[in-house]
Q: What sequence folds into this?
């Protein structure tokens, strides 16, 4: 994956990836809920404002119905008609009758209007008696109505009224009864309480501002602010937000159907109050989201840790294996059943395999020679060989038979091993390879399997050093046991076949050829007292040697299998 | 409602007119009254005012019956000075009243025929109502002449024994302009029939109480 961020650890990347995922999902869901909430709240507020408007209309109609019914009762009231018919002589009685009726109905005003639309009696303002009625449109509407009634909202003296007009019947209309119910602060408060809204009635005069407040649920101190806000922002029949007294109000401004002017009702809901439950919900949601995120952090940390810890352990174990430690550490089982457990088990098996192979290689180095083992493991293992010029060294102990009879087998093996170990180390030190041990005899190769440019001189040096080592061994090991051993060494350089010899299941790396036989023959010649030497080398080896050694010519000897006699020398020491 | 009336002497009993003043008789007349759509108009009062001189006074009793919680007739006319009876033919009581300037009176809750008839001595329209039954309404037009009649369902009224020259006037409850009544002058003979066309308002009479019997209207 191509991350824009670079993490040093798999754990960090995993944690980042999952936490980002969780955070994105949480943020998205929170945003969705938040927006849905706001939309829902806005819709709810709008709906409730429209509902408030409907309630106002219903309330107004009901009040008008009530007024109408009461006015209709009055229209047939015989006493009232009698008072009216005799009012020419007694206006005071008529006025009292009217005030009585006005109070019964709980109307704000009552006006008796002649059929010619002159005010006959104005309940509260006698001074208007005789003047032309100021709401002639309402009378005209009543005249045209089938039941001779009219109703509506009217502005009168800067106040808003719900007004009804009915005829005074005797039984034909003899006058108009006009009743007004004031839409005042009390009415606004009643409506506000019913709808849980702020309600204000506005006189819009000519239409555009300035307006005046006719009635409101807001107190006088706030009304100037209310008026300014409404004048500036509120649009008819549209839901808008206005700020009044540092509170946000969702406002619905609706035109009122007023017969003789322009008026409107402003229905408002406090947005902050409306949103409060949604805010609580959002708060809860936020806490839940944060808790979820925190849990995710812990969970992801745990999961990432449980993934990366064993991986780190495996990596550490792999490093140990790389360093050659196949101990208990690398082969630990993680105790898991999952993929990592499988990996650990595979790693375990692999480690065991590696350990086995290393052991085999080690063993190979011990039973053969490290150089041969290396050669064997390096090359493809096939039977067959190649011709090579090799210097072969043969050594054999003298006087070993009495020793083997005198010593316990274990003791014998111990001293033999000590002897062979010392000899082998010397061979190794000179780049030679111990090809095999045969009892107390040892066969070493120089020039195979690895090419060697100074194979003869190295073989000579080996033989000389072996002689010195034997002297030391005699002094330290054999003489204390009452014996002195000697040895004989034969060295010859010749062409041999080097390679793997045996069956496909089991074979050795060795050399075969005359050269080997000659070396063996020369070794056995050291027994001959005439030669008086324990190291005999062939002339071929001597010629091959790149260094000079002190030798003594011993003469030619016939060798079995060879037509030409072999010229031999006794190796005395370095020059 | 105010109406403009003229004072003329006339006879109530049209049949005896030719016998008494045969020379003054102008004859009989059928008056047809139609509305603005040409439909016959019932309940229109047609009366004749002599062009010269007073109409003879032929005071006679009138009667407005209350039957089936209705006034019958709906529209009637009397010559000024007439007495009118209001017999109640229903089993329930009625409270007949009028607040009309031409005659204010009331007959509080009564059954049968009141002992005293009501005198209509002022010219003008008297609108009758019942304080118990709001839908009950009737009109009595007090006219200054004995020559009057009310149109029937065909919109026709017969006037008999009219003087040679007279003015005919018509009134109807639904008349749009009742302050200036339609009028026609009749001169000499040869006018066996006269017709009026009236501009009427829609009939907005009150719906009768649902507990009452009848057709639910009127």
A:
């Amino acid at each position: 994956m191509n991350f824009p961020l670079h993490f040093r650890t798999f754990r960090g990347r995993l944690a980042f990836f999952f936490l980002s995922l969780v955070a994105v999902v949480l943020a998205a869901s929170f945003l969705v809920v938040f927006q849905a909430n706001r939309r829902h709240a806005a819709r709810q507020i709008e709906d409730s404002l429209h509902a408030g408007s409907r309630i106002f209309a219903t309330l107004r109609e009901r009040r008008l119905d009530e007024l109408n019914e009461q006015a209709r009762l009055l229209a047939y009231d015989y006493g009232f008609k009698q008072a009216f018919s005799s009012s020419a002589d007694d206006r005071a009685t008529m006025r009292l009758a009217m005030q009585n009726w006005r109070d019964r109905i709980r109307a704000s005003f009552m006006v008796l209007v002649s059929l010619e639309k002159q005010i006959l009696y104005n309940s509260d303002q006698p001074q208007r008696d005789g003047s032309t009625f100021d709401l002639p449109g309402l009378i005209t509407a009543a005249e045209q109505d089938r039941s001779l009634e009219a109703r509506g909202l009217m502005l009168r003296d800067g106040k808003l009224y719900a007004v009804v007009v009915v005829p005074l019947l005797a039984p034909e209309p003899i006058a108009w009864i006009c009743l007004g119910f004031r839409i005042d602060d009390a009415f606004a408060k009643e409506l506000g309480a019913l709808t849980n809204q702020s309600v204000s009635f506005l006189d819009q005069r000519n239409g555009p501002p300035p307006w005046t407040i006719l009635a409101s649920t807001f107190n006088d101190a706030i009304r100037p602010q209310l008026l300014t806000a409404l004048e500036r922002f509120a649009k008819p029949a549209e839901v808008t937000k206005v700020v009044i007294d540092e509170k946000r109000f969702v406002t619905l401004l609706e035109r009122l159907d007023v017969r003789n002017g322009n008026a409107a009702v402003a229905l408002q809901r406090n947005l902050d109050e409306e949103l409060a439950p949604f805010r609580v919900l959002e708060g809860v949601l936020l806490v839940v989201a944060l808790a979820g995120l925190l849990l995710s952090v812990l969970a992801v940390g745990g999961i990432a840790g449980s993934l990366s810890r064993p991986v780190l352990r495996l990596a550490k174990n792999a490093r140990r294996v790389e360093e050659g430690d196949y101990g208990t550490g690398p082969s630990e089982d993680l105790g898991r059943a999952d993929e990592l457990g499988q990996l650990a088990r595979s790693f375990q098996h692999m480690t065991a395999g590696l350990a086995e192979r290393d052991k085999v290689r080690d063993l190979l180095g011990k039973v053969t020679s490290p150089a041969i083992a290396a050669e064997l493991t390096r090359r493809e293992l096939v039977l067959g060989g190649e011709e090579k010029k090799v210097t072969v060294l043969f050594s054999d102990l003298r006087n070993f038979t009495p020793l083997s009879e005198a010593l316990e087998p274990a003791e014998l093996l111990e001293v033999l091993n000590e002897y062979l170990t010392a000899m082998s180390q010397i061979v190794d030190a000179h780049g030679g390879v111990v090809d095999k041990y045969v009892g107390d005899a040892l066969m070493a190769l120089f020039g195979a399997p690895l090419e060697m440019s100074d194979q003869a001189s190295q073989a000579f040096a080996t033989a000389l050093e072996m002689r010195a080592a034997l002297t030391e061994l005699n002094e330290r090991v054999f003489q204390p046991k009452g014996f002195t051993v000697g040895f004989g060494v034969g060295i010859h350089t010749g062409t041999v076949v080097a390679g793997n010899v045996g069956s496909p299941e089991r074979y050795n790396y060795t050399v075969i050829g005359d050269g080997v036989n000659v070396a063996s023959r020369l070794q056995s010649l050291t027994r001959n007292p005439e030669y008086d030497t324990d190291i005999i080398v062939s002339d071929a080896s001597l010629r091959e040697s790149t260094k000079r050694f002190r030798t003594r010519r011993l003469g030619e000897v016939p060798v079995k299998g060879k037509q030409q006699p072999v010229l031999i020398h006794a190796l005395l020491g370095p020059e | 409602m105010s109406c403009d009336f003229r004072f003329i002497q006339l006879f109530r009993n049209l049949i005896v007119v030719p016998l008494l003043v045969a020379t003054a008789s102008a004859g009989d007349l059928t008056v047809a009254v139609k509305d603005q759509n040409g439909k016959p108009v019932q309940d229109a009062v047609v009366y004749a005012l002599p062009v010269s001189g007073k109409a003879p006074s032929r005071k006679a009793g009138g009667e407005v019956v209350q039957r089936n919680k209705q006034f019958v007739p709906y529209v009637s006319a009397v010559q000024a000075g007439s007495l009118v009876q209001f017999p109640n033919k229903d089993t329930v009581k009625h409270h007949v009243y009028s607040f009309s300037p031409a005659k204010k009176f009331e007959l509080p809750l009564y059954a049968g025929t009141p002992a005293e008839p009501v005198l209509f001595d002022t010219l003008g329209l008297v609108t009758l109502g019942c304080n118990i039954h709001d839908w009950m309404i009737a009109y009595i037009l007090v006219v200054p002449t004995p020559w009057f009649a009310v149109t029937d369902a065909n919109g026709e009224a017969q006037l008999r024994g009219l003087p040679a020259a007279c003015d005919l006037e018509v009134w109807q409850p639904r008349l749009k302009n009742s302050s200036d009544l339609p009028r026609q002058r009749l001169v000499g003979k040869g006018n066996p029939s006269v017709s009026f066309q009236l501009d009427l308002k829609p009939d907005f009479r009150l719906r009768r109480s649902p507990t009452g019997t009848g057709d639910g209207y009127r």
